[in-house]
Amino acid sequence: MLRTLTDFIAEIAGGARESAFAENDYRLAAAALLVHVVTIDGVIGADEMGKLRRLLAARFSLGESEAERLLEAAIARDAEAVDLYAFTSVLNRALDDEGRQRIVEMMFEVAYADGGLTEFEDNLVWRAAELLNVSTRDRVQLRKRVRDSFDGSPLD
Q1: How many Cα atoms within 13 Å fall on the side-chain side of residue 119?
Q2: Contact (CB, 8 A) for 22 and 28
Q3: Residue 9 pLDDT
C-alpha cells in the first residue's frame, strides 16, 4: 500500500523514484528493517509511521525531506526483499556491536509505538537480532527497556 502511494506520488511528480541512498547504505538497510516491522502485522498505523519518521530523522541526523526520501527508498527495498539477510548483512559490515544493538532497539521502539508488541513483530525482531549477532540476553534487555519506556507514558 505504501509503495503504491510512493509510486503514485513519483508519477505525478514526473518520473521514477530516485534514491539518494545506495543499496549498501546502512541507513537504507536499517530503515527497510524498520519498515518491515511496521508492516509485518498487516496494520500500518499512524503512530508507528510517525515514530518511524522521527527515529530515522533523529538517529541518522536527517532533515524532514531527507528522512522522507529514506523512508520511500526503504519501502521500495522492503517490497523487493526476499529475506532479512539482505539488510542485516549490510548492517553487520557497517556497524559495531553497539550500533547493531541500537538497530534492534529501534525495531522495538517502532513495534511498541502502537501500544503493544504483536507476536509477529516480536518474532521478526528476534530473527533480525540473531542475524545481527545481538545476543538473546541483550535482545531481551532491549525489549524490556523499550517496553518500560512506553508503560505509563504517553506514546510519542
Answers
A1: 0
A2: yes
A3: 45
